[in-house]
Amino acid sequence: MDAKAGTLTRDEISEQSRWDLSGLYSSNDDWIKDFETLEEDLSKYASYQGTLGQSFSQLKECLEFDMNFSRKLEKVYTFAHLKNDEDKTNNYYQGNFEKAMRLLSEAGSASSFIRPEIMSVPKEQMSQFLEEKEMEFYRFHLEQILRYRDHTLSDKEEKLLAASGEMSRAARDSFDMLDNADLQLGEIEDENGDSLPLTHGNFQSLMQNYNRRLRKDAFHTYYKAYESHRFTYSALLSSSVKKDLFYSRARNYSGHRAKALFSENIDEGVYDNLVESVHQNLKPLYKYFDLRKRLLGLDNLHVYDCSVPLVKNIKWHMPYEEAVEKIKIALKPLGEEYVELMGTGLLRDRWTDRYENKGKRSGAYSSGCYDSNPFILMNYKEDNINSVYTLAHEAGHSMHSLFSRRNQPYLYSDYTIFVAEVASTFNESLLTKYFLAGDIDREMRIYLLCREIDNFRGTLYRQTMFAEFEHKVYNAAENNQPLTLEAFQEIYKGLLELYFGSGVVLDDCLSLECFRIPHFYFSFYVYKYATGISAAYALADRVLSGGNKELNDYLNFLKSGGSKYPIDLLKGAGVDMNSPEPVNTALSKFSALVDELENLTLNN
């Protein structure tokens, strides 16, 4: 299957290897019927506009209509996007997906009055509504909306801000076009003396190439492209920051970071604890860089030397079915119910679209809706260990979704981004523990240790560095300091020196890296990667060293969906992200992995 999967058509992939979407819709005609019904029902939103303060029963009726409409719309959208991803060249399903996206947009516009109108109901009157027994189910949902009352403006002002929405995306859209369409990254000479065009896709692969001349050429050529557009990138990032400050000030937030963390009710201390804990635990990272330099036999270590695998030519072969069985064994600490549900879904219930076929979307994800199984898109490769980890990762997302949907009503079934990566990273940590406990040779052990170390480095250390960069930049802007090219580079260079230490040579061009990170156009997002991995490893340690209570606490977290704020959900599982302890636990794990790698390679 592996060698020729990418050349096969959809119909040539075995049925058992394709996801089964019949539980969503048994035919395209059924999908069309639901789509057309939703189109007709869309106009019913207008009948509620201007009435939500009349009585609690009118408010309740509107909330019920919106909830039921949204649930049906998610089902329609999910089927359309999954079918579209099966084969991007299928015009019929591409058309259906575009119809679903249009309906999503129209529904968002039609229902946009609900939140402002709820917030316009006088506080005393809303308090009376919330005291009604029939409104108890909606209490938390309404409380989440009403939190924004102090940051909601008059109708005219809200309309003006809403009208600016499309314009506000100008910097981000311009960055996307420049970075993905117009930017010419240049060419280098490959190992055979042939010309090799650089792309964003192959740049990361080239940074893992054992030919150092190739890595160095790719690195400097890549950043030369950014250097030639550095003033434009600087202006775009500065414009994005100023746009964010405009909205945070208009809505009366103390700062833009406060606004960004408000939606999930995250205290700013969580952000500060993360940065401070990482600062106090940089020595193990420096030690890892020193190990890299020694093991690669280099006189000096550059950033383009920091991604090269320390073990060459790892041989790996694991068919999909065997990977599922290995993952089931690795996840035994999560209990029989979890393991059997997951294994049955991945193998017999056909949650997973396993292999590549012509036109299929690349990458991997977990998706679905309240009325479907949690589906997984894979492009599984039997000769790549990363495929096994990806499957375990996506299975974590899927089980989180499955447990949430089975135990929460639709309204509270979705979990937020802050906790989204916890279950997936938890699964990966158990898989690594299982592999390392097995009968493996020294080279494989080194490979697995490095994989885990680099995952920590990329997710915990690197994302925290990005988070600190954002905080410094927004602080500068909020204190009316100019965001020039030099200002951006000076801030970023200082962080590079801190996070890489004196053991890594920092080429001057690396200060341009801040201009190629798309997440900076979605401000104060990256820290969630670092807090997510910290929470996952802290919970994994707690479950593995505990008993039934610790396991049940974690499973109850998976079952809780979005029924509480994310900090409260994690606290119920036994991890307090308001404390630095979870981050310190993860950093201690990183340090132990580096020590183990050092001991394993003493004779190299």
Structural description of this entry:
- This protein is mainly alpha-helical and 604 residues long.
- It has helices at residues 28-41, 56-86, 91-110, 114-120, 123-131, 139-146, 155-163, 165-168, 170-182, 200-206, 212-227, 230-250, 256-262, 268-279, 283-296, 320-330, 336-347, 385-407, 417-420, 422-437, 442-478, 485-500, 527-545, 548-559, 566-573, 581-600, and strands spanning 187-189, 195-197, 301-302, 352-353, 365-367, 375-377, 504-505.
- The strands form 3 sheets. A 3-stranded mixed β-sheet has the order 4-6-5, with helices on both faces. It has a two-stranded antiparallel sheet with strand order 1-2. A two-stranded parallel sheet has the order 3-7.
- A hairpin with a 7-residue loop joins strand 5 and strand 6.
- It is globular, with a radius of gyration of 25 Å.
Quickly describe the structure:
With 604 residues, this protein is mainly alpha-helical. The protein contains 26 helices and 7 strands. β5 and β6 form a beta hairpin.
